[in-house]
Design brief:
- There is one protein chain.
- The chain is of the alpha+beta class and about 210 residues long.
- The chain is about 30% helix and about 10% strand.
- The strands form 2 sheets. A 3-stranded antiparallel β-sheet has the order 1-2-3, covered by helices on one side. It has a two-stranded antiparallel ribbon with strand order 4-5.
- Helix 2 crosses helix 7.
- The longest helix has 14 residues.
Length: about 210
């Protein structure tokens, strides 16, 4: 693995209640910075619109029922398109496979130069979609979900971090980089909202907690 210098983002809280510093007098006409509830935000509203239900059965699940990576034209498949989109200075051969470039994984801040060190993560894992509604879809619908380049469903990330995530929902796994929790929860909610997938009670509470970092 050709690992360059990991870049670690530091989340800085603006709430003095969190860092224990002493703040000056507040303007009584202005509400406290943390007075807006998560539910009042756009992602919070989408979260409240999701159906809460117990996870369904994994019976019948197979990744073969989510055909990927499909052709996206110009000799490129979905994986190669995401590698080009999410990398810096990416150059490709005639077969669209990257010959050079750098990729910084949003989950852990590590930067890579070898595309073999990069996995394309499904924000909402295929298995999670199966137990939250996709079991009833057609293979064509599942193919569209597995190759979605429009919604925030596909990300180029460090391979072993993606493997540790596996098919876990936010109540069981969160990105190591805490400064990414806001984006991660927002994108997870957006994908589930777009595809009308359900969430569990534990999943909803974890998403609310991560939205509090926004």
């Amino acid at each position: 693995m050709n690992r360059i210098l990991p870049t670690v983002a530091v989340a800085v809280s603006a709430l003095t209640a969190c860092n224990g510093s002493t703040a000056g007098p507040s303007d009584p006409k202005q509400p406290p910075a943390n007075s807006v509830s998560v539910a009042a935000t756009a992602p919070g509203q989408q979260l409240e619109q999701l159906t809460v239900a117990a996870a369904g059965s994994m019976d019948g699940y197979s990744r073969d029922k989510y055909p990927h990576w499909i052709s996206q034209g110009d000799n490129c498949n979905t994986r190669e398109v995401v590698l080009k989109r999410d990398g810096e200075g990416v150059k490709t051969g005639n077969d669209c496979y990257p010959t050079s470039g750098t990729w910084t994984s949003p989950y852990d801040g590590a930067t890579w130069t070898d595309p073999s060190d990069i996995d394309i993560d499904h924000m909402v894992p295929l298995a999670n979609s199966w137990i939250s509604g996709a079991k009833a879809w057609t293979n064509e619908q599942r193919q569209a979900f597995a190759n979605d380049l429009t919604n925030p469903q596909l990300l180029a990330v460090t391979d072993n971090v993606n493997q540790s995530k596996s098919d876990k929902s936010p109540d069981r796994w969160r990105p190591p980089l805490k400064s990414y929790w806001c984006t991660y929860s927002t994108d997870w909610i957006k994908v589930k909202h777009h595809y009308k997938l359900t969430i569990t009670t534990q999943e909803k509470e974890a998403l609310k907690d991560m939205l509090n970092s926004c």
